[in-house]
Write a structure and sequence with these properties.
With 697 residues, this protein is an alpha/beta fold. Strands 3, 4, 5, 6, 7, 10, 11, 12 and 16 form a nine-stranded mixed sheet that branches. Strands 1-2 form a two-stranded antiparallel sheet. Helix 11 links the parallel strand 6 (243-249) and strand 7 (276-281). It is globular. The two termini are 31 Å apart.
Length: 697
């Protein structure tokens, strides 16, 4: 089969016209060819908007927007979006949108939407009749200041659609009814495109008693195997692979077997291939490891029988010694440093496990008097309180408690900064995320519905940090980068909290138990009313010179407003990896450094190249690969951002194969020390690569 013209043009990027000069203009030509030779020829033509909307509504592609808006109102919105004359700046951006997001006809061969149409429809759908608010959303979206997460952007306004939210977490209780509820939830959530994480820490260990008969429990591994099969089977009609994660507390008896499941050379009966795994690490473990003191793991059911508390809900700082001394609690000793090295070795082999630092997640938790954060999600950025439900038998009444539901979106740092619209973009983003939360009704899984109804949690993140720094000729590892992040994310925190307060005031409603939170008593604001977060370096002062930065006085005023009116969202900020949506935005993904200045992607039988945004001969040195960066400095930058994010950050470590497991373990220790709440994947570059693209561009 002949290679398409636009693919050939895109591939010509790598043909060097002069020494160390890639032919980056060819990417623009590839975009043009893609539209002229493919998109335009395969897009259904309509004479006007009325004809288009009528056709799409009558044929069950769109919901009936006439129930909310007049044709004139919708025409005005479409006109405003199209007059922006948006153009994709890279082939990958256009290709990703039309391959993954644009609405197609039932044959899957013709496009029924352009990028502008998807923005208009999403804006109309999320605002449900409020045309002024729809214009606000649309401006932020067409300016590419804000990007909803994939399920929201993909499904909004469609008659035959999936859910707008795809991030769920829940606990598994230690009985068959609870385990069955978890399996049923996993099946249902996966079938609607959800990624689901479960906390397995309450389950009995291998060899524990069942009905007081010793040695009968099978441990966590069989549960993981079943979950893996469920996510493989329930895959949203084959359109999207199911995805799940299992977390286990490091003090659980089965922790070594849990880690072994990701080893490459382990027996197939033990190996877990597609299910992600994460380790929950309380501060006590880090203390024992640093002092090289004895570390014990415990059989959780023996703990529950003695204290009436689950192992992962016990405060290890106060209870650890009691557990050791209690002869009725079964335990075994492991060298903590050896285990940390084992985690590093498993990460070198597979990238797993994720690490969740429980103490850091709860230290500044604004809802600490309401509940604990016990684990995280598939991408390690969602960190919210959760509770295990009591699922009774057929004749018993269930006690449904809160799981976790969160919808996501991200700011494009470059466009928000260049348009000087931090306040406006953050406010529009929070409004959009709130609409998704209010619309969402996952009643097929009661614990997920309960969490969403009571807490209204959202997760606003950010992308294009490395793109912004490179465009402004700032090194990612520099003092200026730290300075920028400290100011920018403080402002995102301020305006998201302010908008949440305003929504609570408008609705006359807060999240459940707001009065018990650190927002209500004012403690959350302490660091902001005591310290000024103005730029410290000359470069960053210049960047923010025409942008109003919230002052101590404004923070104090916000503190008083929050005490008076409350806030609507229990959780507001979470920085996801957003790889897919970053392509649409022509941005670098999330806040992490790039891997290659020209990224190579395989789609079917074609190879495509994605030059990093704004890459040119003047700034190429600022697109240093993450593999060539000092990971300690990367961790430091993430820690600065984490200070202003109430949930977590998907933070990836990039190591080289020459890095020892002890080197990687040092990164864990440093990340914990600086207050990171989690670490996502560890990626390892093979030493056979002789040079990186940074050096050759």
């Amino acid at each position: 089969m002949a290679i398409k013209k636009w693919i050939l043009l895109n591939n010509e990027i790598m043909i060097q016209e002069d020494e160390n000069q890639y032919n980056l203009n060819k990417d623009k030509e590839a975009v043009k060819s893609y539209f002229i030779d493919y998109v335009n020829k395969n897009t259904v033509f309509f004479h006007n908007l009325e004809e288009k909307l009528d056709y799409l509504i009558e044929n069950n592609y769109y919901i009936d927007f006439y129930e909310w808006y007049t044709l004139e109102e919708m025409q005005g919105l479409f006109d405003e979006i199209y007059k922006k004359k948006f153009r994709f700046t890279s082939f990958m951006s256009a290709f990703k949108f039309y391959q993954s997001y644009a609405l197609r006809d039932n044959t899957e061969e013709k496009f029924l939407e352009r990028y502008e149409d998807r923005i208009a429809v999403a804006s109309l759908y999320l605002t449900k009749g409020n045309i002024d608010k729809a214009h606000e959303y649309a401006i932020s979206l067409i300016n590419q200041e804000y990007q909803p997460a994939t399920p929201t952007f993909l499904n909004s306004g469609k008659k035959r659609s999936g859910e707008l939210v795809s991030c769920f977490l829940d606990e598994i209780g230690d009985n068959l009814n609870n385990i069955g509820y978890a399996f049923d939830s996993a099946m249902k959530l996966s079938s609607i495109g959800g990624g689901v994480a479960f906390n397995l820490s309450k389950l009995r260990a291998r060899g524990e008693s069942i009905k007081d008969i010793e040695g009968r429990a099978s441990g966590v591994l069989p549960i993981m195997k079943i979950l893996e099969d469920i996510f493989s089977y329930a895959n949203q009609l084959g359109q999207r692979a199911g995805a799940g994660a299992a977390y286990l507390n490091i003090f659980h008896w089965d922790i070594e077997e849990f880690l072994d499941s990701k080893k490459i050379n382990v027996d197939e009966k033990v190996r877990i291939k597609s299910l992600s795994i994460g380790v929950i690490i309380p501060d006590k473990f880090m203390e024992l490891m640093s002092k090289d003191e004895p570390y014990y793991v415990f059989m959780p059911h023996t703990v529950f029988k003695e204290y009436g508390m689950y192992l992962d809900e016990i405060n290890m700082d106060t209870m650890y010694q009691k557990l050791i001394e209690n002869p009725n609690v079964k335990k075994k000793k492991i060298n903590p440093r050896h285990l940390l090295v084992k985690i590093a070795q498993t990460q070198k082999e597979s990238g797993y496990p994720y690490l969740f630092f429980k103490g850091n997640a709860n230290e500044n938790h604004a809802l600490k008097e309401i509940g604990d954060v016990k684990f995280s999600n598939l991408c390690t950025e969602i960190m919210q309180l959760s509770e295990v439900s009591d699922i009774g038998s057929y004749y018993e009444k269930n006690k449904i408690r809160r799981g976790i539901s969160c919808n996501l979106g991200s700011l494009n740092i470059v466009n928000v900064m260049e348009n000087k619209r931090i306040k406006e973009a953050v406010s529009a983003a929070i409004d959009s995320l709130t609409a998704v939360s209010d619309i969402t009704n996952i009643d097929i899984v009661p614990s997920i519905k309960k969490a969403n109804d009571e807490l209204h949690s959202v997760g606003l993140g950010a992308m294009n940090l490395h793109g912004f720094l490179a465009k402004n000729k700032i090194e990612y590892e520099s003092r200026e980068a730290l300075d920028f992040c400290n100011v920018f994310f403080m402002m995102v925190n301020y305006y998201s909290l302010k908008r949440s307060m305003e929504i609570a005031k408008e609705k006359g409603e807060t999240f459940l138990d707001f009065e018990k939170s650190e927002y209500a008593n004012g403690n959350y604001f302490d660091k902001y009313v005591k310290e000024n977060y103005l730029p410290k370096t000359e470069k960053i002062k210049e960047i923010f010179k025409d942008i109003e930065i919230p002052s101590i006085k404004q923070w104090e005023e916000l503190k008083q407003d929050v005490k008076k009116y409350g806030v609507y969202h229990a959780y507001r900020l979470a920085i996801a990896p957003n790889q897919s949506t970053s392509y649409i935005q022509s941005s670098t993904a999330s806040i992490m450094p790039i891997v290659d200045p020209i990224e190579v992607r395989e789609y079917g039988d074609s190879t495509t190249f994605y030059p990093m945004p704004y890459l040119n001969n003047e700034n190429k040195e600022y697109y240093k690969s993450a593999y060539d960066m000092d990971q300690m400095k990367v961790i430091k930058l993430i820690s600065v951002i984490q200070r202003h994010v109430d949930q977590g950050i998907s933070a990836i470590l990039h190591t080289n194969s020459l890095d020892s497991t002890r080197d990687i373990a040092k990164y864990y220790i440093y990340a914990h020390k600086l207050g990171l709440k989690s670490l996502y994947y560890t990626r390892t570059r093979k030493s056979t690569i002789e040079e990186c693209l940074t050096c050759s561009v």
